[in-house]
Specification:
Blueprint lengths: L1 H24 L4 E4 L19 H7 L5 E4 L2 E4 L2 E15 L5 E5 L4 E12 L2 E4 L9 E4 L12 E6 L2 E3 L7 E4 L3 E6 L2 E3 L8 E4 L2 E6 L2 E3 L17 E4 L11 E7 L2 E2 L9 E5 L9 E7 L2 E4 L7 E6 L1 E7 L2 E4 L8 E4 L8 E6 L2 E3 L17 E2 L8 E4 L2 E3 L22 E2 L15 E2 L4 E2 L6 H12 L46 E20 L9 E2 L3 E2 L5 E8 L12 E20 L7 H25 L6 H5 L1
Parallel strand pairs: 1-2, 2-4, 3-5, 4-6, 5-7, 6-8, 6-9, 7-10, 8-11, 9-12, 10-13, 11-14, 12-15, 13-16, 14-17, 15-18, 16-19, 17-20, 18-21, 19-22, 20-23, 21-24, 22-25, 23-26, 24-27, 25-28, 26-29, 27-30, 28-31, 31-32, 37-39
Antiparallel strand pairs: 33-34, 35-36, 35-38, 35-39
């Protein structure tokens, strides 16, 4: 029985390992760039690196990885070349490769299939030329059949433009992904990201804030929105209006800009067409932690088919309108199909939409002539128990929400936030985190998570919900989906990933050390339904899979009955409670995968396959 089980495991593992080996045969080549490198004499090896990313991209083949060693790289980086399978340009140590220039630091005018990951990118100082990064289609006719596309910016610190935007994506580019980055400190009447006359752009899992004093700069309260989505050039390229844009799972905080701007603005230039059409804004956290006045958290000027759902807007947020401004600029058509579902708007100070204590509260600025059609459904509103702002002159008021809820979502008030800028001297972000992902999760779990008994929990009945929340964890976790950006983990009976201690009895197949059947202590790892040890069906109490130690000989998998008690981490399905956050869930899954690979090697050794396993499969 034991040998049969071992053989079954081995067969499965060998097939898996064979597939991995086949991929390994085609594994990406790795090349190096270093401050000490030389573009003329280098070959991209560790001992003879290139000096610039541009030279590396001009030299490597499709599917390559370019590792950029720590140091400062001055001058312009050109992301160019066509890579069907993609090329990754990665800082070897996250944030330790600094890209600096007195003009645009990174351009991508003729690139396809390039990822830039893990860098610290900024202007070198005041007096710089415009833009930190620009992605623009200059392959043939802008926006033609062959265009700049499949460009990814991931896990970068993008900051301190001294002239114009930090990142501009414009003129026909498509399929651009901006994820897991940190943005702060643009310049003048410009943005962190300007998405302009493009299509298929996704902005997700980023953190946006400003902290000019932290960079030794004065704050003139004159900068524009963190993100603008628009079309400045009409039909000069293939796109009239930016289309199919997604802004999801981002955190916005610490406003230091103009009182006429927004965290997120759609449309800006007053053109006689819809400047954006088909925009999804979901699962974002907007924090009002700053005394500086803004226009409104969200704005639309000449947009169509815009959905704003499952976002959380929380805090004092001094503004001319707390939730939204929907208006027209210049020759814009009236806004159409502007939809608001399942959001939380929560001001715990009772001053919703007031610039200061002498000004009246204001929920929206939405003149009827500027809004052709809208929906407001199933949102939660809280003004610290004070009356919600209503204005008969506005098209949209909280009272228009037939399924709206007024109640305290029990969010932690966003005050005293440590602004999480990067501090190279300590190799950490302010507050102690060592990665952007850690900063992001801490912000969300501290300021976006509704407390126990919140009326936001299990309240969604409409079909307007994404499948995941701001931490990319599945919805729903309880009897229903929660309002706002964060899905609260259920406690009680249900499925989940968690970490904890548990005991369980079960019948099934178990993997571990031990021979035969019996009761006792044994070390085992597995996955399946039920809590406890083993793979199979069973019932148990607790959280996670158990790991224990015991007596026995041999390694492999046995079948039998037993009782066990363990402590550990894992993933399970059955009865019990789950709690935790994204890091715990990820760690749990990672531990389980690591345990399975250890088991794979054990099984191979038990069968005496040694290192010749590939021949056994072939």
């Amino acid at each position: 029985m034991r040998m049969a089980s071992l053989f079954g495991i081995a067969t499965c593992l060998l097939v898996t390992l064979s597939a991995e080996a086949a991929r390994g045969d085609k594994q990406a080549d790795t090349f190096y760039v270093a401050p000490s490198g030389n573009d003329a004499t280098g070959n991209g090896s560790l001992s003879q690196p290139w000096a610039t990313i541009t030279a590396a991209l001009d030299s490597v083949g499709d599917g390559s990885i370019i590792l950029v060693r720590p140091g400062t790289y001055a001058g312009r980086i050109r992301l160019r070349g066509t890579f069907a399978n993609g090329v990754v340009v990665r800082s070897e140590v996250p944030y330790h490769a600094q890209l600096r220039h007195s003009s645009t630091v990174v351009t991508c005018f003729e690139g396809q299939g390039i990822t830039l990951e893990g860098f610290d990118i900024a202007h070198s100082g005041s007096g710089a030329g415009a833009l930190v990064i620009q992605v623009q289609d200059l392959i043939g006719e802008p926006g033609g059949s062959e265009r700049v596309s499949r460009i990814t910016f991931r896990n970068n610190i993008l900051h301190d433009s001294y002239n114009n935007d930090i990142l501009k994506i414009n003129n026909g580019a498509a399929n651009i992904l901006v994820e897991g980055n940190m943005f702060y400190n643009q310049a003048g009447s410009d943005e962190h990201i300007d998405i302009n006359s493009v299509r298929d752009v996704v902005v997700q899992d980023n953190i946006f804030f400003n902290d000019f004093a932290g960079s030794g700069r004065s704050n003139g309260n004159d900068t524009s929105s963190y993100i603008v989505i628009k079309d400045s050039n009409g039909d000069d390229d293939s796109e009239t209006g930016s289309r199919d844009i997604t802004v999801r799972r981002n955190v916005f905080l610490n406003w230091e800009g103009s009182s006429g701007s927004n965290f997120l603005l759609i449309g800006e230039d007053g053109n006689p067409y819809f400047e954006a059409d088909g925009v999804m804004v979901e699962n974002n956290l907007f924090l009002g932690n700053s005394p500086n006045v803004m226009r409104a958290a969200f704005g639309v000027k000449g947009g169509r088919n815009i959905t704003f759902r499952h976002n959380t807007v929380s805090g004092d947020l001094p503004s001319l309108a707390y939730a939204m401004r929907l208006n027209r600029e210049g020759s814009n058509p009236a806004n159409e199909e502007i939809l608001f579902y399942n959001n939380i708007w929560s001001d715990s100070t009772g001053s919703m939409g007031a610039e200061n204590s002498s000004r009246p509260n204001d929920f929206s600025d939405t003149a009827a002539v500027d809004v052709a059609s809208f929906a407001l459904d199933s949102n939660l509103y809280w003004n610290d128990g004070a009356a919600l702002p209503e204005d008969g002159n506005e098209q949209i008021n909280p009272s228009d929400d037939a399924n709206g809820i007024q109640g305290d979502p029990r969010l932690t008030e966003p005050v005293g936030i440590v602004i999480p800028r990067w501090e190279p001297a300590s190799d950490t972000f302010a507050g102690g985190a060592t990665s952007i992902a850690d900063v992001f999760e801490k912000m969300v779990m501290t300021y976006g998570l509704p407390g126990a008994g919140s009326p936001a929990i299990d309240r969604v009945e409409s079909g307007q919900s994404p499948d995941e929340d701001i931490l990319n964890l599945p919805r729903p976790q309880g009897q229903g989906t929660d309002l706002g950006a964060v899905e609260v983990f259920a406690s009680g009976e249900g499925e989940g990933e968690g970490e904890g201690e548990g005991e369980g009895e079960g019948e099934g197949e178990g993997e571990g050390e031990g021979e035969g059947e019996g009761e006792g202590e044994g070390e085992g790892e597995g996955e399946g339904e039920g809590e406890g040890e083993g793979e199979g069906e069973g019932e148990g109490e607790g959280e996670g899979e158990g790991e224990g130690e015991g007596e026995g000989e041999g390694e492999g998998e046995g079948e039998g009955e037993g009782e066990g008690e363990g402590e550990g981490e894992g993933e399970g399905e059955g009865e019990g409670g789950t709690s935790g956050c994204m890091a715990t869930a990820r760690k749990t899954i990672g531990d389980a995968v690591g345990d399975l690979w250890l088991l794979a090697l054990t099984a191979i050794a038990a069968l005496g396959l040694g290192t010749s396993w590939r021949g056994h499969v072939n």
